[in-house]
TrEMBL record:
GO terms for molecular function: methyltransferase activity. This is Dimethylhistidine N-methyltransferase. GO terms for biological process: methylation. Pfam families: Methyltransf_33 (PF10017). Keywords: Methyltransferase, Transferase. Transmembrane segments: none annotated. PANTHER family: ERGOTHIONEINE BIOSYNTHESIS PROTEIN 1. InterPro entries: EgtD, EgtD_Methyltrsf_superfamily, MeTrfase_dom, MeTrfase_EgtD-like, SAM-dependent_MTases_sf. NCBIfam families: egtD_ergothio (TIGR03438). The keyword Transferase applies.
């Protein structure tokens, strides 16, 4: 498992590498320090951010069917558990979940969320794993015989082509016949709806994105003047993804520890992509990674999809 110290070290290294590359980019996982996790929770409550609401609606509507797929005695293993809100809902209604593994990179937010969950579900076996799921790590040994992986929130959309292939392949090696994988996938849709979801009126997404500059100031002794940068999010039609960037409003020099990074006016740091898929596109990806798509649930407006996958024998 990646230790927290090792993660801190790689943050510095990755920031320097990312900001020295052309174009500048940082991995989306770095958006999630404690403040970033809090802001993400706020984003999910904005009227423009349809994914969380819609995914929850699907889980509520399809509860019985989801319960049948999960079965009577399963361990649910959640990647990127955040506030664990979705699992709280499932735990409340599905008696077949006997054990829960919460995995997240945002350590103090993870510990706080799991503490709350444990109080509400005292008979559940709960494991807390602070890890970076983009690199292999070991899972705790489980009591339940059946494993069901849970990857909601369309976080799969944050990976580029190669990364999502690697991730899905790794997920399939964690499972054996009869296990399952529940994954939330955001669907292609009207670009205006997408645009406003990442440019909300209260500017919470802006604060979430710019928090990355503050995080580098706090943790890496950087001197970003946040007022000299702006949030920028748009749909890249060709790539089929929302891109989130931080744009430099002027030519400037920033110090990170002992290193200097220069910015041109208008130059951006690409901080997150959020790919959108059709049901068929996602199922094809799943099949390439040795999965059999068993079931897909969607909402009435076809905004979001939740898939149940099993591995090929
Ligand atoms: C888009 S949020 C989704 C949160 C929640 N699962 C939901 O559906 O609302 C992504 C979550 O994954 C976590 N995360 C992002 N990158 C990660 C990584 N590389 N390893 C582990 N957790 C990560 C974040 O801290 C955050 O809680």
């Amino acid at each position: 498992m990646t230790s927290v110290k090792a993660m801190e070290k790689s943050f510095y290294k990755d920031v320097l590498t990312g900001l020295r590359s052309v174009p500048k980019r940082l991995e989306p996982k770095y958006l999630y320090d404690y403040r970033g996790s809090e802001l993400f929770e706020e984003i999910t409550k904005t009227p423009e951010y349809y994914p969380t609401r819609t995914e929850m609606r699907i889980l509520k509507k399809e509860l019985n069917s989801i319960s049948d797929y999960i079965g009577d005695e399963a361990a649910l293993i959640e990647f990127g558990s955040g506030s664990s809100e979705k699992i709280k809902f499932l735990l409340h209604h599905l008696k077949g979940i006997k054990e829960y593994v919460a995995i997240d990179i945002s350590e103090s937010f993870l510990l706080q969320s799991v503490e709350k969950l444990k109080k509400e579900h005292q008979h559940l076996y709960v494991h807390t794993v602070c890890a970076d799921y983009t690199v292999p790590f070991s899972l705790p040994s489980l009591k339940a015989k059946k494993k069901v992986l849970f990857f909601p929130g369309s976080t799969i959309g944050n990976f580029d082509k190669q990364e999502r292939k690697t991730f899905l392949n790794r997920m399939s090696t964690l499972l054996t016949k009869g296990d399952g994988f529940i994954i939330g996938v955001d669907l292609k849709k009207d670009e205006k709806l997408l645009h406003s979801a990442y440019n909300d009126a209260k500017q919470v997404t802006r604060a979430f994105n710019l928090n990355l500059l503050q995080r580098m100031n706090r943790e890496l002794l950087a001197n970003f003047m946040v007022e000299n940068f702006e949030h920028k999010a748009f749909y890249n039609h060709e790539e089929g993804r929302i891109e989130m960037h931080i744009e430099s409003l002027k030519e400037q020099l920033v110090t990170i520890g002992e290193e200097e990074i220069s910015f041109q006016k208008g130059e951006t740091i690409h901080t997150e992509s959020s790919y959108k898929f059709s049901v068929q596109e996602f199922q094809n990806l799943a099949k390439e990674a040795n999965f059999i798509p068993k079931k897909v649930w969607t909402d009435e407006e076809n905004l979001f999809s939740v898939h149940y996958l099993e591995v090929k024998a």
